[in-house]
Structures are given as C-alpha cells and as structure tokens.
Sequence to fold (93 residues):
Amino acid sequence: MKVHVYSKEGCGICTAAKEKLQRMGYDYEEHNLQYHVEFHEGWEKDGSIEILAAHSQINTMPLIRVGNEFLDYAAAMKTLKSLRKQEGQRVTA
Fold:
C-alpha cells in the first residue's frame, strides 16, 4: 500500500513519521504541504483541493494519506499497524 506524507521542512514530527514508516517497511511518497496549501497553476487537478480540506480539518503535521483517507500521525500509525496485523505480517515499530 502506498502512503503519502504531506510535510513541511524543519518539522521534527514529520521526520519521525517518515523514519517510522521506513522501519515498518512501508513505501511512501513525500509531498511538500506548503505547495498544496498555496494557490498554484493546476491546483484543481493535482489533489490540492482535497489536501487543503483535509489539512483544515486535521490541522496537525504531518498529514498522512493511507489509501483515500487523510489522517494525523497517530491515527495513521494505528491504521497501518492494524492493516499489517490483518495481513498477518509482523509489525516493526
């Protein structure tokens, strides 16, 4: 499962989240959140509307998308651990 991490430079929790995803064996794609919350050409087509809406509701860093669901760090880790257990794989955290 591909995980998307929307983070900002200098965010310690964002770095910790990415390191934890690596230890858990998840591939992730990193995105600069600032890009998606500022007006730019193509914002209607690149998912920025959904990302901005999710960020306005969650409003913590990092914003993590697991499948089609946007989650905060704690909820994302809980969801990913649960998915691993359902798949019968060992969870490394």
